[in-house]
Amino acid sequence: MSEHPPIPESPPANGGTPIHLRPTAELAERALLPGDPGRALALAQALLEKPLMFNHHRGLWGYTGMAADGEPLTIQSTGMGGPSAAIVLHELIALGVRRAIRVGTCGGLDASLALGDLVVAGEAIAADGTSQALGIASRAPGTDARVAADDELTASLTRTGVADAAATVVSTDLFYDPRGRREQDWLAAGAVAVEMEAATLFALGARSQVQVACVLAVSDLLGEGRVRIDDERLESAAQRMGEAAIAALS
Asked: Contact at 8 Å (CB) between 30 and 73?
């Protein structure tokens, strides 16, 4: 994996009243971060004992309960895109989260990927605006700005066996991109998949000295034409992601 430029440090947020999250239950110090509120609910029902709603404000559903390893876990949706993810993680950190794993979906760029495969993201190419606003910059003109996940937590994810090794993904702001085909450029830069939040979460975690990692399910294949996973296979992949993330956090 390539070297990354240093991220400007900022102290962990440790206090103040959150604006967008309004906790109605206890927060665990470790969290899973799906983008989709519906996936947060499904994961809480499948993976937590007696989950209680942690947040419902602004439709950002979150839940806290006891995981299979006997320790509390919060599952909090971030919404779509870097700006929303940055708000949610910032406020979770202020409330006490110290380890977090994004459990999201991605579009597969590499031809070896199949629908439902899981990808551990060890670094993200920052093709989005939020991570760059957080201080991510390229090392030299004409090169991609990149940001790394937490090494220790990423290694724990790969040891669960969901992926042979950590890979590079690209984070973008646009799901429907009017700028034409960019997949080949991203693939040439080393990205195996594209998604929308990892770079922001990695950058904010590094700034705040909080461990952040990411595992993604391939929900779309971006070859000659987009191929979308069916709901049943996506639900199965999401549960495997959640189980792997809990094992990595244990």
From this structure: yes
The separation between CA 126 and the C-alpha centre of its own chain, rounded to angstroms, equals: 14
Q: Which residues are catalytic?
A: 220
What does the chain come to in residues? 250
Q: pLDDT, tens digit, for every residue of 90-100?
A: 999 999 999 99
Q: Would you state the pLDDT for residue 152?
A: 98
Helix, strand, coil shares, percent, the chain, to 5: 30, 30, 40
Q: Is residue 15 part of a domain?
A: no
- Domain housing 128: 30-249
DSSP state of 10: -
pLDDT band, very low/low/confident/very high, at 14 (cuts 50, 70, 90): very low
**Residue 170, helix vs strand vs coil:** strand
Q: What is the pLDDT of residues 29-85, one digit of tens each?
A: 999 999 999 999 999 999 999 999 999 999 999 999 999 999 999 999 999 999 999
Q: Please indicate, yes or no, if residue 7 is contained in any of the structural domains.
A: no
The count of domains in the chain is 1
Q: What is the pLDDT of residues 149-170, one digit of tens each?
A: 999 999 999 999 999 999 999 9
Beta bridge mates, 124: 147, 169
Is residue 217 within 8 A of residue 163, CB to CB? The reply is: no
Do 65 and 246 touch, CB atoms closer than 8 A?
A: no
For residue 203, give the CATH number of its domain. 3.40.50.1580
For the chain, what is the largest distance between any 2 Cα atoms, rounded to a whole number of angstroms?
52
